[in-house]
Structure formats: C-alpha cells, structure tokens
Amino acid sequence: MNGYFRTAILLAGLTGLFLAVGYMIGGQGGMMIALLIGLGTNLFAYWNSDKVVLRMYNARQVDERSAPQFYGMIRDLAARAGLPMPKVYIIENPQPNAFATGRNPENAAVAATTGLLNQLTPEEVAGVMAHELAHVKNRDTLIMTITATLAGALSMLANFGLFFGGGDNRNNPLGAVGTILMVILAPMAAMLVQMAISRSREYEADRIGAEICGNPTWLANALEGIQRAAGRTVNVQAENNPATAHMFIINPLHARSVDSLFSTHPRTEERIRLLRAMAAGGGASRGSGGWSADAGARSVWTGAATVPSSAPPSAPGRRGSVPSTGPGGGPGSGGTPRGPWA
C-alpha cells in the first residue's frame, strides 16, 4: 500500500502544480482553463493512448493462429493473474523489450519485441510478460498515461503563459521573471514527478509479476539479459519518441541515467537484487506452483530457433533451444525460422 499511497501523493502534487501554473497565468479564470485543459487531454488519452503508442511502434496484433506459443503463454499468465485476456502484439525490433498499455484490464494490450522473443528463454519471457500483466492488474497503464498527459499539458500551459501571461499579471508576484522561471521550472518539476511515479510502479510490478509467473528468478535473469542486450542495440522508434520510454520494462534509450531524480526506471541491479532476495525467501510460488512451458498443448516447446542476424552476437550462445515457426505458423512448416513467436 505504501507504493499506492506514494503514487497518489505524487499525482496530487502534479495536479496541484498544474492548477498553480494556471492561476499564475490568469488567476481563478486561468486555473479553471488549466483544469479544463487537463480534463480534455486526459479524456483523449484515456480513450486513445493505447492505439497511439501501438501505432507509433508499428505493433502487429497476433492471435492463437499466428503466434500460438506466445499467445498461449499470455493466456496462461492472464489466468494466473485473474485478468481478462489482453490483446497481444509483436513489434519488429531487435532490441529485447516489452510494454503494456490500455485504460483498464478489460481494454489492455501487451507488446513484446522480436528481440525479446528470440533472445530469451521461454521462462524469462514469461517473467517479463508477467511483469507487464502486473502493470495491467495494478492499473499502472492508466496512471502513467494520466501522468504523462498532465506533464505534457503542463509544458504546453507554461509556454502559453510565456507568450500570453505577460509580466503584469497580479497573480504572479515576480512579474516577467516569474513567468520565465515558471516556463523553465514547471515542466521540469512535472518531469521529476512523472519519473518518480514510474520508478515506484516498476518495483511493484516486479514483485507482483514474480508472483504471477511463480518464479522471481525468471524475471531477474530476464532483466539481466535485457539490460545487457539493450545497451548494444539501438531502438530507433523509442529514440524518436523518448516520451514513451517509461512504458518499457527496461529503458530503451541509449542515454540512460542512474537511479536518480532524472531516471524513468530504477537501477536494474537493484531490481535484480530484490527479485533474487524474493526468490531466496520463498516470496513467490515456485516449481510446480509456477507457470510452466509444458503446462498445456498450446504452450509446448519443440525444435530450435535461429536468432536473427540483427540480434546481439552473444544471444545465440546464451539462448539455445526454443521452437521455430515457419510461414505456416507451426513448427517445421518451411521457410526461414523466425523464432517461436512470430
């Protein structure tokens, strides 16, 4: 509950900052305009943010026929989490990563890159996707959408104040100097709050994701592999849309920072340490109580995959035996092997 309380406080602070900027620009009228802008942008984001981000990354929706193993895994994990079946997407991108989006569990979507599916073991992929389903379960996707929208709207409002607020506004005791400071500091403060919320939600999703998949070590190993591979692989789409970086399980940007005020993600080493401590303390069901790749016919793994040449050089040696599917969608259907999922 501490994580939820902290998130509520941060969201309240961001909303208050938004209204304060509106008041400094135009008094009570400006505050009401700011409130309407905030409500309007959040309403748009509530209904459309998932579609926008999936389109941004050219995500391809898959089903049980086009990606039987991956889709079956998500269905098993969603059932373990007590969630409705989300929409499932695959992103053609060599960097291993994943994210979740959607306004609520009934309208959620999870997406994984081909880099993630081709370079990790089935158990590690399960750990990653369980983490993303934990975000859905916690409604973090909605929280982060609201946070990002408010932060963006605040920047817009502050710039509006620079051009139209003027230096004679009686509500701004510092006049023109105050307006300039507001334009610089308000978006920065909003960004800090947004990043703080993102970091706190990642820790919680790690814990609940480990409980969903049943083995914290799977997620810990996955984070270790993703962090190493992501540092060698440029995610062009994320670099072009840095505002979406907080959505991913590992920061996809090359200009990653340490666990500081300006980081969208906690330190990966700290996340791994907490997950391994959870595993050592028996904090999640393991063994027969966890998700299993052999749990049902829809999750059977056979054959061997060929890792694409775009993957990091170390990937083939690290991740050996996962099934391959050809153009027909089943193992051994001919053509160039594309991994177990595509």
From TrEMBL:
Its EC number is 3.4.24.-. Keywords: Cell inner membrane, Cell membrane, Hydrolase, Membrane, Metal-binding, Metalloprotease, Protease, Transmembrane, Transmembrane helix, Zinc. Residues 326-342 have a biased composition (Gly residues). The chain crosses the membrane at residues 7-25, 31-47, 142-164, 176-197. Belongs to the peptidase M48B family. One of its GO terms (cellular component) is plasma membrane. It is a multi-pass membrane protein. Residues 316-325 have a biased composition (Low complexity). Its main location: membrane. Zn(2+) binds at residues 131, 135, 202. It comes from Rhodospirillum centenum (strain ATCC 51521 / SW). Its cofactor is Zn(2+). InterPro entries: HtpX_protease, Pept_M48_protease_HtpX, Peptidase_M48. GO terms for biological process: proteolysis. This is Protease HtpX homolog. It comes from the Bacteria. Residues 72-278 form the Peptidase M48 domain. The active site is at 132. Binds 1 zinc ion per subunit. GO terms for molecular function: metalloendopeptidase activity; zinc ion binding. It is found in: Cell inner membrane; Cell membrane. Residues 304-342 are annotated as: Disordered.
